[in-house]
Structure to design on (282 residues):
């Protein structure tokens, strides 16, 4: 029986590999550029930076975590840009919020901090890369318009929203605390108890705010922020809304200042009803 021979000539192995390369395919075992690991300092994608550095405290999408949410439209609209820059870069001394900037001892470059700040405040920006010889220089440049922020753009702050930052002259005397107690009675006591001791639910107390361990972990600025924005992730309303009280009057900046003075006094005084006994602030 005669053997049949193909008329198709096989390409030599070298030519086949060259053809493979010309077609855009890599050689077997050759790493692809897209698969090369990115040095940590070159990561500028907001979702990656946020997931790796912020989500543990502020929640996977910025809305549910042990720390106050960052992805809160009211917070994002009223918090001054300068404060966001300072806190992301330098943290909050005396609290669990660490410094993230390398200049302050943190792990992030100035460009990475800028990405986080711009996204939180919904400021358009672009990543600009230039080269100085073989060295790539990356900059985060703010622009008039650009891609939408990952969390969207919050509406403008309400005209009656209290000032976000703690005033330079914060009331801390007994008169301010007594005024704060009156504000607390009308705006907070229904959920937190008349002196912040919590309300009876089931077998124990819930929503306790006059708690030394909690108050020791937060600054006066955090207390003021919570009085203004509430904790929407936990069902706490903001300064202006009480669904079950149609006659409720929104808190003013002075109301918030007095509430902050009251809570700061509780931090020093310890147990409810004993808020004037010094305990020593952290």
């Amino acid at each position: 029986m005669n053997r049949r021979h193909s008329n198709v000539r096989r390409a030599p192995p070298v030519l086949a590999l060259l053809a493979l390369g010309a077609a855009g395919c890599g050689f077997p075992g050759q790493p692809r550029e897209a698969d090369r690991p990115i040095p940590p300092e070159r990561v500028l994608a907001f979702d990656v930076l946020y997931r790796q550095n912020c989500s543990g405290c502020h929640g996977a999408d910025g809305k549910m975590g042990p720390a106050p949410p960052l992805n809160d439209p009211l917070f994002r609209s009223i918090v001054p840009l300068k404060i966001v820059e300072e806190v992301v870069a330098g943290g909050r001394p005396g609290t669990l919020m660490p410094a993230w900037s390398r200049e302050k001892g943190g792990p992030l470059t100035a460009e990475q901090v800028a990405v986080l700040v711009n996204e939180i405040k919904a400021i358009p920006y672009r990543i600009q890369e230039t080269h100085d010889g073989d060295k790539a220089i990356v900059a985060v440049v703010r622009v008039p318009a650009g891609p939408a922020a990952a969390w969207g753009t919050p509406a403008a702050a309400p005209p009656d929203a209290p000032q976000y930052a703690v005033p330079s002259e914060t009331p801390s005397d007994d008169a301010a605390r007594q005024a704060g107690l009156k504000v607390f009675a009308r705006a907070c006591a229904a959920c937190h108890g008349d002196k912040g001791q919590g309300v009876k639910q089931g077998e124990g107390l819930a929503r306790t705010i006059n708690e030394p361990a909690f108050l020791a972990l937060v600054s006066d600025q955090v207390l003021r922020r919570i009085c203004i924005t509430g904790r929407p992730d936990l069902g706490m309303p903001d300064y202006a809304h009480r669904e079950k009280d149609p006659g409720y009057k929104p808190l003013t900046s002075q109301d918030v200042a007095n509430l902050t003075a009251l809570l700061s006094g509780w931090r020093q005084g310890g147990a409810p009803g004993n808020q004037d006994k010094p305990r020593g602030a952290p």
Residues 174-269 form a domain with the Cytochrome Bc1 Complex; Chain D, domain 2 fold (CATH 1.10.760.10). The first strand starts at residue 125 and ends at 132. The longest helix spans residues 253-269. The radius of gyration is 28 Å.
